[in-house]
Structure formats: C-alpha cells, structure tokens
Amino acid sequence: MNPEFTRTKTYLYCEDDLLSRQAMDLILKRVMRADNVHIFEDSTDFMSRLVALPTPPDVVLLDIHMKPYTGFDLLRMLRSDPRYQRSRVVALTASVMNEEVKTLMESGFDGVIGKPISVATFPRIIERVLAGESVWHITY
C-alpha cells in the first residue's frame, strides 16, 4: 500500500447514518491520513453542495439507502455531469446480496464495499479503486 498516494486524494462520503459517518471520518482522516475529506449527512441538495467543494472528489463513497435521493440517484447525477466523469464512485451498503451486486455493476458503480467496513482492508481497497480497478468487496 502507498499511503502517500491515498493521502493526497479528495474523498466525499454521503451517508445518513451518524455512526457510519463518524467511523468513515476516523478511517479516512486517522488511518489513511487523508487531507481532503468531505462528508455529507444526507443527499439533500447533493449537486449544489458537491459543486461548492474546492475540487472534484477523486473518490465518492455513497450509501445506497438514503433519502431524499438514493445512492443510485446520486450516481446518475454524478455520471451526467462532465466535471465528475473522472471521480471513482463506490457504493457502501449493508445489504449486499448477489442480485444487488449485479444491479450495482450494471448501474455504473466502480465498486461496492459491504458494511461493516474493515479498517484493516479498507485502505487497500481504496488504493485499488484509485488505480482504476473495479472492486466488489462483499463482507458477510
């Protein structure tokens, strides 16, 4: 793993669960020592908040089951805006069944990470995603 490679990237996490947001904040900032971390507490006004960020995120981590917009809705918004074509978009979800993974793949996600997230493996998964690999990491 190359900590410098992942540390200098920009991350956005959109998640409506407080504990999940806190855990991801710790993983990104303390474990991965990421300098540029943005966390949205829900999907309300997603695009206007995204455009207000100083730079487009390199990695966008999306909870799938949110309101008012789902992770699928947010993915469509991201993919339709040329400013975010290079952003790698990864779904984070606790309900990872084979059929949902197929739907996530077909929808255009660059990967999925099953919850609960492993602090030990998460940095390596993100490094692979940043390297252009599609990662379908399912935990049970």
Report on this model:
- The chain is α/β, with parallel strands linked by helices and 140 residues long.
- The protein has a single domain, classed as Rossmann fold.
- Helices cover 39% and strands 20% of the residues.
- A six-stranded parallel β-sheet has the order 2-1-3-4-5-6, with helices on both faces.
- 31% of the residues are buried.
Which terms summarize this structure?
140 residues, alpha/beta, Rossmann fold, 6-stranded parallel β-sheet
Structural class: alpha/beta
Basic shape? globular
Q: What is the total domain count? A: 1
* Multimer state: single chain
Spatial extent as radius of gyration: 14 Å
Give the low-pLDDT segments: none
Number of helices: 6
Count of DSSP strands: 6
Q: Label the CATH architecture.
A: 3-Layer(aba) Sandwich
What do we call the CATH homologous superfamily?
A: Response regulator
Under CATH at level 1, the class stands as Alpha Beta
- Report the sheet with the most strands, covering strand number, pairing sense and barrel closure: 6 strands, parallel
Strand order of the largest sheet: 2-1-3-4-5-6
As for the CATH topology, it is: Rossmann fold
Amount of beta strand: 15-25%
**Series of H and E elements:** HEHEHEHEHEHE
Give the fraction of residues assigned to helices: 25-40%
Report the mean per-residue pLDDT as an integer: 92
